[in-house]
Design brief:
This protein has about 220 residues and is α/β, with parallel strands linked by helices. The protein has one domain: Rossmann fold, CATH 3.40.50.300. The strands form two sheets. The chain has a five-stranded parallel sheet. The protein has a three-stranded antiparallel sheet with strand order 3-4-5, with helices on one face. Strand 3 and strand 4 form a beta hairpin. It starts with 11 loop residues before the first strand and ends with a helix. Bound molecules: cytidine-5'-diphosphate. The site of cytidine-5'-diphosphate has 15 residues, from helix 2, helix 4 and helix 9. Cytidine-5'-diphosphate (CDP) binds next to helix 2, helix 4 and helix 9.
Length: about 220
Amino acid sequence: MDEVLVPGLPPVIAIDGPSASGKGTVAARVAAELGFQYLDSGALYRAAAVASLQRGIAPDDEPALVELVSGLALRFEGERIFMNGIDVSDAIRTEEAGVRSSQVASVPGVRAALLALQRSLRIAPGLVADGRDMGTVVFPDALFKVFLTASAAVRAARRHKQLIEKGLSANLEGLLRDLEARDERDRTRAVAPLAAAPGAQVIDSDHLGVAEVVDQVLEGYRHAV
Ligand code: CDP
């Protein structure tokens, strides 16, 4: 790896990839294995989305969104996320929040407003961060970078199963359409587009289970240290 560990800063493992590629599950398990802090950056954009829906703010109204996001008290407690003191962990998981989050995430001011909070979670002994721009923008000096992907059909099927298990309603065809639209928006947006970071290890999980992906990440990280 050509990334350099900045002296004094705890190591970061950055796991980026498209929607429903399994980043969250993998990142949380890798963090638990290593005893590291875990950052689900998508949860922040989802919380911003829920807040914007609650206040009736349009997804392209940058000044109003920036004011809203700057005033939100967002806090993680383990894998739960609190917004202004309220546990919104379940409320942010609907597809409506997912679609809106991808829209607000393409607003530059929103991304800037969430940067300091994300970086503040880099604490000893280390951080596993999952998202779209962990290795490219938020932690470009991450010790180990992964780009986790899978075909749209496999990702739609996984998301479908996840929603059904949570007791939420889900339609496979609709999910596939939403995923493809979200991929397109994430990839083509002007600010922090979804892309593998230079030097990232690309893992295609179409034929891999969670445990196998976790093993590959842990092995890659141990090589990089
Ligand atoms: O679970 P899923 O992969 O669908 O999405 P997520 O990780 O919860 O993130 C929700 C949305 O936030 C994504 O569709 C992205 O548009 C956006 N996002 C982003 O732009 N940058 C990040 N670091 C994380 C999420």
